[in-house]
Amino acid sequence: MRYLPKSPADREAMLKAMGLRSVDDLFAPIPAEYRLNRDLKIPRQMAESEIVDYFRQRSRENAEGYVSFLGAGAYSHYRPVIIDSLISRGEFLTAYTPYQAEISQGTLQSIFEFQTMISELTGMEVANASMYDGSTAAAEAVMMAVRLTGRRSVVLARSLHPEYREVLATYATHQGMPLSVAGFGENGRVNLAELEKSISAETACVLIQSPNFFGTLEDVAAVADIAHRNGALLVVSIAEAVSLGIVEPPREADIIAMEAQSFGVPLGFGGPYCGVIATREKFVRQMPGRLVGQTVDKHGKRGFVLTLATREQHIRREKATSNICTNQALVALMVNIFMTVYGKVGLKELAKQNLAKAAYAAAQFGKQGEVLFGGAPRFNEFVVRTSEDAYAINNRLLGHKVIGGLPLKKFYPELGNAALWCCTELTTRSSIDTAVGLVAESERSVQSAKQETEEMVR
Amino acid sequence: MTDRIRKATRHVNQNEGLIFEKSSAGKAAWKVPPLDVPEVDSASLLGGIERKDLGNMPEVSEIEIIRHFTRLSTWNYAIDLGMYPLGSCTMKYNPRVNEAVARVEGIANGHPYQPEKISQGALQIIKTLSQCLIEITGMDAITLQPAAGAHGEMTGLLMVRAYHHSQGRPRKKVLIPDSAHGTNPATAAMVDYAVENLKSDSRGMVDISALAAQMNEDVAALMLTNPNTLGVFEQDIHKIADILHAKGGLLYMDGANMNALVGKVRPGDFGVDLMHLNLHKTFSTPHGGGGPGSGPVAVKTILEPFLPKPVLINKPDGTLGFEYNRPQSVGRVRAFYGNFGMFVRALAYIQANGPDGLRQTTEDAVLNANYIRKGLEGTYELPYATPTMHEVVFSDKLQAKKGVRTMDIAKRLIDYGFHPYTTAFPLIVPGAMMIEPTESESIEELDFFVEAMKSIADEVEENPQTVLDAPHSTRVSRLDETAAARKPVLRWKPVV
């Protein structure tokens, strides 16, 4: 086996040195009746060339060469080449969690830079080293708000990513945390009147997403005002991190739970991604997850360590702020490198392009059909309503190697035949025009079919 | 001191500031293509929420970024540099073909919401890996959704709760041996189970009579690591399972130490009802400086209805797809389907090994640990004489007489070219030195390690201060952790 650095003679010599006859002697502690006396029924040992070939074949069975308009919490942005060059260095790739600070300064300093940049971008005072993803970060942020306020109930926006809502429901079930949902209004934003009605003296926090699931930017200040007037905290989830380049961060929030996948992380069929929690300094001791802090060594030299570990499971066990241990360090490094590449000016330019592409696409769709939620600003996603079923339209688009917007019927039946479309800097004008044309064509054929039926009925 | 150190020597160690300290207005490492749609006036589109300023984000060029992170990387120890004997962490070789196949276009860039009919390749990978892991564990069904081991534990305990609830009563507590990893009790608390400690006996195993006395109908499950964190296989595992099952409890296995068992024995065959695996331990996906992980949970049939949703199924038309209608499911534990990129790597690892390779891997892992045990017996105190599997736990009892503790010895190992072993647990061994070499070490590297540990023991006798002040060869010496925690500096700020 090519990963094992031993010859049969090596094994013999080792056994001899231990005074053993066979390696089976070492497995004697396992009761004989449980030992497996056959080969595992798994694929046979394969050559490297065969493994590469296997995955190339699987890749061909996936969507290769399609133009995609999918977003909804997973975004297709350009990934600078140097991200993979750098994260492929064995010293990053094959290192453990940096508990031994003296030989982990590379990882520790890069996390410190990550925490700094996330704080700068979110307008918060501190950020942690990462969480699993945006959905679990949102759930953990809510649990943090519960600990901070001593209150238990939570009001969340229906315009929050539906799968994030499901994850929160799972986490909340056994924590005695009642959840209530505030709907959205005509403009796609959280319905403030409904929010006002749902909130009470028991509410630990209000959880919204901005840009929300429809791509609409929430009126964070108004939501914050309602939350804070009622003594609740405001948690804002951000799933499209690139928006922070051009949209004011939700500075009124108390906790921000972010998904940073947009910053240089491959779509990868849904993971691994990179969650992160940012908050105010005064709340840091209730924060889940790892934190890197600056300090000095005994010669006064600057260095970095994992800090405030008394919040964590390996010290506090059942009294920890969370059970999280392994997080997403290597993915956070991708995010870190991406933020460094684009930096202060590039992120803004990148975000502007996203804004422009989506504005153009929404305008083109608007000429042919109905674009919902026009009454509020949006970032790079928008909702198109059609007379035909969105799945049927998408099936037709697939024939032209176009993946249309995400049909919303599953998540929001009240919106009818609606789909969530996303454009990023990678979406070309010609692909937008093609998609708009195809949707318009299918709308016209549905309309004329309808007219024919109506005429026949008459 | 230096002639004792055969493996490590110093190398050029560059200084490197924070990236913000290199920033200067007008430098850039990016370029976007010309916009092919009309420019927009962001101020009028966004109104008052247009962002004007990105604060202290850096402005640097590409070569500076390459050098910055390359220099930082040289300050890390890594598996690629040598042995990483961290007990219960299974720091084995991370095969590079895994990285290559994870980056194949249609695998790296699949969108989680693209239609299933153009995702069959990804779904096939999930299915094949699931089948392999079910066979390896001897269980009946599996979810790959949890993002790491602790997340898998939470998922498992949610299922335990849902199962008992379906039996009429969710029960109140979870039993956890005193040798357990800290995530176990932290997880139980998240699922609102009270934690009850279970004492180990003089062999370092679960005390069967204590278990029998503590077991009752309020106990939902026992969370057991097997082999446990001492590296000891729980020989009475069938009795443990029987005691639990007799009172309707479930046996949960923390699979952190599965590297001792793969291909030799299957938890499903010795009474385990559910367990999690750590793909970043046993199945070679890279630790990456602390993640990403992946923590699949394998279960027996009785728990299958409670798996997180969605669940992968064969559809009537012969294709693969996700089923969302799972009325008894514990719900979702993560958006989308889990850390798919890690599934790809784990499957590539299983394929590279096959049944014979996996068995040989386990045998070598156990052989290596016992070789180290043999080599260091007598030099360091072995608190439990019980035979061990893939890891061995010594203690600093002999060295403590000279005022040298496990952490000091661990730090001194750095000078000899090794990563320290695990010092934080098991809590039942004061001054624990938990050593897991994995299968990835040659005799040469193992001999270097044993030599290094013996040499440090000599130093403790001759010149303990050398050990107490270690490490001596690193860029920074021991860091002031107390100061870091008392006045936390968690981000860079410009000097005003």
Structure description:
Chain A folds into 2 domains: 81-339, Type I PLP-dependent aspartate aminotransferase-like (Major domain) (Aspartate Aminotransferase, domain 2, 3-Layer(aba) Sandwich); 343-457, Aspartate Aminotransferase, domain 1 (Alpha-Beta Complex). Chain A is α/β, with parallel strands linked by helices. In chain A, the strands form 4 sheets. In chain A, strands 2-8-7-6-5-3-4 form a 7-stranded mixed β-sheet, sandwiched between helices. Chain A has helices at 8-17, 48-61, 81-87, 90-93, 105-122, 134-149, 162-173, 192-198, 220-229, 313-316, 329-368, 390-398, 429-457, and strands at residues 67-68, 126-127, 153-157, 179-182, 203-209, 233-238, 255-259, 275-279, 292-296, 302-306, 370-371, 381-385, 402-403, 406-407, 418-422. Chain A is 39% helix and 14% strand. In chain A, β9 (292-296) and β10 (302-306) form a beta hairpin. The mean pLDDT of chain B is 95. With 496 residues, chain B is α/β, with parallel strands linked by helices. Chain B has helices at residues 42-46, 62-73, 96-102, 105-108, 120-137, 149-166, 183-190, 208-214, 237-246, 340-376, 397-400, 406-415, 443-462, 464-468, 481-486, and strands at residues 141-143, 173-177, 194-198, 219-225, 250-254, 274-276, 297-299, 311-314, 320-323, 392-395, 432-435. In chain B, α9 links the parallel β4 (219-225) and β5 (250-254). Chain B is globular and about 75 Å long. Among the domains of chain B are: 18-75, no CATH class; 98-350, 3-Layer(aba) Sandwich (Aspartate Aminotransferase, domain 2), CATH 3.40.640. Classes of the chains: A alpha/beta (458), B alpha/beta (496). At the A-B interface, α1, α2, α3, α4 and α5 of A face α1, α2, α3, α4 and α5 of B.
Strand order of the main beta sheet of chain B, please?
Answer: 1-7-6-5-4-2-3
| Termini gap of chain B | 46 Å
Instruction: Kindly report the average pLDDT value of chain A.
Output: 95
Order of helices and strands of chain A: HHEHHHEHEHEHEHEEEEEHHEEHEEEH
CATH superfamily membership of the largest domain in chain A: Type I PLP-dependent aspartate aminotransferase-like (Major domain)
Helix run count of chain B: 15
H-E string of chain B: HHHHHEHEHEHEHEEEEEHEHHEHHH
Helix content of chain A: 25-40%
Main-sheet strand order of chain A equals 2-8-7-6-5-3-4
Tell me the major beta sheet of chain A. Answer: 7 strands, mixed
Q: Tell me, what's the shape of chain B? A: globular
Let me know the CATH homologous superfamily of the domain at 98-350 in chain B.
Type I PLP-dependent aspartate aminotransferase-like (Major domain)
Radius of gyration of chain A: 26 Å
Q: Please indicate the percent range of residues of chain B in DSSP E strands (runs of 2 or more).
A: 5-15%
CATH class of the largest domain in chain A: Alpha Beta
Would you tell me the structural class of the helices and strands of chain B?
A: alpha/beta
Percent helix of chain B, as a range, is 25-40%
Shape of chain A: globular
